[in-house]
Amino acid sequence: MRSQESRSPESVVREIRRKTRRKFSSEENIRMVLELLKEEESVSTICRREGITTGLYDRWSKHFLEGGKKRLKGDTCIAGGRPCSLPLGFC
């Protein structure tokens, strides 16, 4: 492993960012996506306030909407708080 003195400043910054990366819970993701879907403020304003990129928001909203679409189509159901593969109505 390299010593601290021989590492480039860019690699040090990358390592610090990796170690201090924020982790958002599912509830936080949903709250932010729903807040942005209300369209009371612009996406960039809310993303800036929450400290996330618009790309991350786009990914979260895509997953959120895809999950809802699957549920409405009857592809998934919730049984005992966990997703299951049984057809809708058989849980």
Architecture overview:
The chain is mainly α and 91 residues long. It has one domain (4-84). Helices cover 56% and strands 7% of the residues. It contains four helices and two strands; from the N terminus they run H-H-H-H-E-E. The protein has helices at residues 9-19, 26-37, 43-50, 54-73; strands at 77-79, 82-84. Strand 1 (77-79) and strand 2 form a beta hairpin. Helix 2 crosses helix 4 (54-73). The longest helix has 20 residues, at 54-73. It is elongated.
Q: SSE order in H/E notation?
A: HHHHEE
Largest sheet: 2 strands, antiparallel
**How many separate helices?**
4
Average pLDDT? 78
Beginning-to-end CA distance, first to last residue: 53 Å
Helix-strand makeup class: mainly alpha
Question: Low-confidence runs (pLDDT<50, min 5 residues)?
Answer: none
Amount of helix: 55-70%
Name the shape in a single word: elongated
What is the count of structural domains?
1
**Total E-strand runs:** 2
Strand order in the largest sheet = 1-2
Radius of gyration: 20 Å
Percentage of residues in DSSP E strands: 5-15%
Tags for this entry?
4 helices; 91 residues; mainly alpha; two-stranded antiparallel sheet; 2 strands; single chain
Concise structural overview:
With 91 residues, the chain is mostly helical. The chain has four helices and two strands.
Detail the topology: elements first, then pairings:
Elements: H1 9-19, H2 26-37, H3 43-50, H4 54-73, E1 77-79, E2 82-84
Antiparallel strand pairs: 1-2
